[in-house]
Write a structure and sequence with these properties.
About 40% of the residues are buried. The chain has about 250 residues and is of the alpha/beta class. It is elongated and about 65 Å long. The two termini are about 35 Å apart. Helix 2 links the parallel strand 2 and strand 3. The longest helix has 13 residues. The chain is about 30% helix and about 20% strand. It folds into 2 domains: about 70 residues, Ribosomal protein L30/S12 (60s Ribosomal Protein L30, Chain: A); about 170 residues, 3-Layer(aba) Sandwich (Alpha/beta knot).
Length: about 250
């Protein structure tokens, strides 16, 4: 379940019959307005639970008192799961000669909501099994991420973990090969991404943050370091663009 906030975001979710909504939260200090009346009426029509809270309680639910506008909503998403549950998910079955291996992208400190939303959209549209998203150190799932994902957030397979170290440890226990994506061309151990050998087991591709890339601690946990080749003196591309290339690589191999 994911909690979103903001009046226009919530109104759009309530108006979309495809979205499964669990509970609506309202601050008891909200002033009467047309949009608030519309939100409450739609919630009643859809038989959504309505809970009223003090302004402080609502802020604890939304985790964003400055922008929640006194409303939050719990949206049920079957694809939002703990990373431990990845073991029960089938492989994509559409890459690597239909071998059924799972492939995921893991984010290390990606803090820009726009980038996170774009990555979610690419991974959801691709043959990838899903996205592993640490709750600590990465952008929080919020209305900006939802908007950037063009609505695909609610259809995405997102496997959450407390922090990236715990997520990678869990993946390794599940037999995943960890491939760290870097732009360090000087490192002789770094392989060219398009020349990686075909997968012989599950794979997780780790993408670092927008400024510094992967942390040294995470680099040391990787089985392989790989780099997307660059031309014309360009040393790197946006993390969302890199995620898109990785997510769809199997379709053009």
């Amino acid at each position: 379940m994911i909690t979103l906030y903001g009046r226009r975001t919530i109104l759009a979710l309530l108006e979309d019959s495809r979205v499964s909504i669990f509970r609506l939260h309202l601050a008891d200090s909200n002033a009467s307005s047309d949009i608030m009346e519309r939100i409450e009426n739609l919630a009643r029509e859809r038989q959504v639970e309505i809970h009223r809270h003090s302004r402080q309680e609502l802020a604890r639910i939304s985790k964003n008192a400055r922008q929640d506008q006194g409303v939050a909503i719990d949206v049920q998403t079957i694809g939002y799961q703990r990373v431990e549950e990845l073991a029960e998910v089938s492989g994509s079955g559409t890459t690597n000669a239909d071998n059924g291996f799972k492939e995921v992208i893991v984010l290390d400190g990606v803090t820009n909501p726009q980038n996170l939303g774009l990555i979610i959209r690419s991974v959801t549209a691709s043959p990838m099994t899903g996205l592993v998203l640490p709750r600590k150190g990465c952008a929080r799932i919020d209305p900006l991420v939802h908007k950037a994902s063009a609505g695909t957030l609610l259809r995405a397979n997102i496997f959450h973990c407390p922090h990236i170290e715990a997520g990678l440890e869990c993946l390794q226990h599940q037999g995943f090969e960890i491939i760290g994506m870097t732009n360090d061309a000087a490192d002789e151990t770094t392989r060219s991404f398009h020349r990686l050998a075909p997968a012989t087991r599950h794979r997780a591709y780790v993408l670092g943050n927008e400024t510094d890339g992967m942390s040294q601690q995470i680099r040391r946990r990787c089985d392989i370091l790989a780099r997307i080749p660059m031309s014309r003196g360009v040393d790197s591309i946006n993390v969302a663009a890199a995620a898109t290339l990785i997510a769809f690589k199997g379709l053009f191999a």
